[in-house]
Known about the structure:
Layout: E1 25-28, E2 36-37, E3 43-49, E4 56-64, E5 68-78, E6 82-88, E7 101-111, E8 118-119, E9 136-139, E10 145-150, E11 156-157, E12 162-169, E13 175-185, H1 189-196, E14 205-206, E15 220-227, E16 236-246, E17 248-249, E18 271-277, E19 283-287, E20 291-293, E21 297-305, E22 316-318, E23 326-327, E24 330-334, E25 339-348, E26 354-364, E27 377-380, E28 384-387, H2 392-398, E29 408-413, E30 416-421, E31 423-425, E32 432-439, E33 443-451, E34 454-463, E35 467-474, E36 482-492, E37 499-508, H3 518-529, H4 544-553
Parallel strand pairs: 2-9, 2-17, 11-18, 20-26, 31-37
Antiparallel strand pairs: 1-3, 3-6, 4-5, 4-7, 7-8, 7-9, 10-12, 12-15, 13-14, 13-16, 16-18, 19-21, 21-24, 22-23, 22-25, 25-26, 27-34, 28-35, 29-30, 30-32, 32-35, 33-34, 33-36, 36-37
Helix pairs in contact: 3-4
Amino acid sequence: MVRLWGIAGVVALLCALAVAPAQALVSVEGTGEPAFTNTTTNTVFVRYAGDGFSTYRLHFRYIVGPNLFADDYTGNLGNPSSNVAFADWGGIVNTLSEGQYYAICTQGETQDIAPPNWVAPTTNSTCQITETKRTGTTIDRTKPAISVSVSGEDQYTRTVPIPVTINYSDNLAFPFPANFICARTGLDPAAAAAACNAPGPAQFNYNSDCSLPANPGSNVTSFSCSLTDSPPLPDGPVTVCAIAADGAIPDNPLSADQGQTADKANLSLAQCGYVNVDRTAPDVSFTAPSTAHVGDLITVNGTVTDGGSGASPTVTWTWGDNTANGAGISTTHTYTQAGTYTITMATGDNAGNPGQSTQTITVAPPPPPGGGSPGGGTSTGGGGTVTPPPTATEIAKQVGVSGGAGATQTTSAGGLDVLTAKKLRLGKKLKYLPLALTADTAGRATFALIRAGRIAAKAGLTITKPGSLGFRLKLPRKLKAGRYSLKISYTPAGASKASVKTIHVTFVKAKKKKKARNASAAAVYAARVTGAGPARIPDGTVPAALRRAAQRSHGISAR
């Protein structure tokens, strides 16, 4: 079997005199072997050098794995000068196995004339020479696997350039390195991926920026690059798809140059990642009164719209009076000093674009207290009625809750003591929340019943003189059951700052009406047997014991 091809010899005249043999030199020709090869066979090329008259031969050693000798072969060349020879695995291993390392080591040998024997330099094997060219390769015919992320884990971004990461892994080979990129804007990610993989002209193009691996010599690594704003990226979805090549290339049996282009290597399946670009700030607005008095409970209601990433749920209010910020799309605030203030509503969208709106409010001093008897008061705003001061027991009875003081609660807002119920049962008769008030001095009070940031009922009250009085806060007709906050603000006469306190009141659902009691049913039966009632009574309405009692009460004998 022939295992050596293309060896050209040069015939030279042998001298009759005994001479020392020339050095038998051999080296790896061309580029040497690639680290990984994705074909089923492999060819190696070597360059040998003779002196033109000494007898010369090449000794090939076939190695599988780190040190398993598969075969030896020696080819006699005569007495050449210098040329190139090549050898492959044909007839020794017909199909090279995935993941296995194969090497062919070559050594030049010359023959002494007297006595005739072969002499080989001890350091002239291609596997022994220290150089950058390989004499062996590992077989890898498996595609690499990749994943693509655009702007990390973000669903939305307002930052351009947009970072792109390609994560690479392969069972054996490191990356080529060469990645092919397809980017699409303005399309749904699924449609963008379909467009990148559409037949016809190549949609994927080599991208040098995205082809530099973080660990070039590792079979698990990543690539980092970015999408710039040139040409300008429009707001909306941006999809990036990639195909990666590993370092396993085909064997070239016709040339000592084993270099190949990336498209000949094992190519991954196309993988895509996307992000939504949103660089447009949301529209922010709110409603608020333009004027108020010190101690008034004002309400602000915000609106946020965003057509890109959507409005952020976080809303912050600043009141301009150095008090704590408010939160929520709607909320309330009480100013304690007169002046002109700027209310600012600040929020954003899910991409991080900030948005805000501002309005000015003018706060006047509290109205002066009026005249009247001690403890007198005047309701303002139509939200309640002044009454004589109720006791804790009277409040419990008014709201249908027994237990006296255990059914009520008290708090103080500055110089105003407030007593009211803890729990009330909803019903047609419940129209007011009763309050018992005791003021140390004349002043102005406001009351607001709040749930989930919305005011269910509110009223203002001017207390004309120190003393006690009652106040009924009017409730809406369709008040829902639940736990409410009662916000109380009180500004004493002549003061510019209000005191604010909050307590909680719970409204429970009304009890369902029970069916007619047995006694009533017995009366109906009695009316029937005396002829004064309806002609028919549904079966089972009156228990037997009650029926007999009714009969006896009307002188009717039992049947």
